[in-house]
Amino acid sequence: MVVHHIVLFKLKPELTQEQRDTFLPICQEGLAKVPYGTSDAMGPPIYDAKAAGYEYGLYRQLKDIEEFQAYRACPEHMSLITGIVAERVAEMVSFQIEA
């Protein structure tokens, strides 16, 4: 079954405007290097009144649970988690749906 991977991000309040502005392009560039997933999207909410303060969302579709597990462990993904996400994200929600 397909895995739908959703992540929401709240950035650290002390970030400079430049750090905020470069978060999305740096993440998108890093995600493009991840060899797993059949489709993805990342960006700010289009209706932020219900976004609960989350500034960006990520969606990635993976073909099955095995590919999701490989995605989670791959060096390209871990580089994002231990790099820009650790440096700039205050809160993160990660949610997966298998359908």
Automatic annotation (TrEMBL):
Residues annotated as domain Stress-response A/B barrel: 3-97
Pfam family for this entry, one: Dabb
InterPro entries per the UniProt record, alphabetical: Dabb, Dimeric_a/b-barrel
Protein name, per record: Stress-response A/B barrel domain-containing protein
Organism taxonomic ancestry: Eukaryota, Fungi, Dikarya, Basidiomycota, Pucciniomycotina
